[in-house]
C-alpha cells in the first residue's frame, strides 16, 4: 500500500512538471470562474489601494486580445479585455490575464486584473501595459 501511494505521488509530480501548459487548458475570457476572479481582484484593489469611492459594478463586452503559447520554463497565457461600468455610471477598460500553472502550488490557473487609470502604484506598468 505504501509503495502504491509513493508511486502515485511520483506520477502526479512528474505529470505536473513534465508537460508544457498550452492555451487549450486555459478557460475562456468570458468563463464564469474567470469573471468571478476578476471581480474579486478588482474589489480587493478598490477597497485596499484605489479607494476611489466608485467601484466597478458590472463587466461586459468581453474580448480575447491574444494568446501566448510558450515552451518551458514559461507557460501559456491568455490576454483579455472588457468594458467595466462603475457605480456612478462611468465606463472604464479592464485588462486581465489568465496564466496556466500559476494557481496554488503550480496547479490550475491564475487571474490578474487591472483597470486602466486605477493602478496608482503601477503594479502592472503604465496603463496596465503588462496585462495588455
Give structural notes:
The structure is a single chain. With about 130 residues, this protein is α+β, with helices and mostly antiparallel strands. About 25% of the residues lie in helices and about 30% in strands. The chain is built from 2 helices and 4 strands, in the order ααββββ. It has a 4-stranded antiparallel beta sheet with strand order 1-2-3-4, with helices on one face. It is globular. The N terminus is likely disordered.
Q: Give me the count of strands.
A: 4
**What is the rounded distance between the termini?**
49 Å
Instruction: Return the string of H and E elements.
Output: HHEEEE
Parts with pLDDT < 50 across at least 5 consecutive residues: 1-19
Residues in helices, as a percent range: 25-40%
Q: Strand share of the residues?
A: 25-35%
> What does the main sheet amount to?
4 strands, antiparallel
Determine Rg (CA atoms, Å). 18 Å
Q: How many helices?
A: 2
Strands of the largest sheet, in order across it?
Answer: 1-2-3-4
* Structural classification: alpha+beta
Shape summary? globular
Question: How confident is the prediction overall: mean pLDDT?
Answer: 79
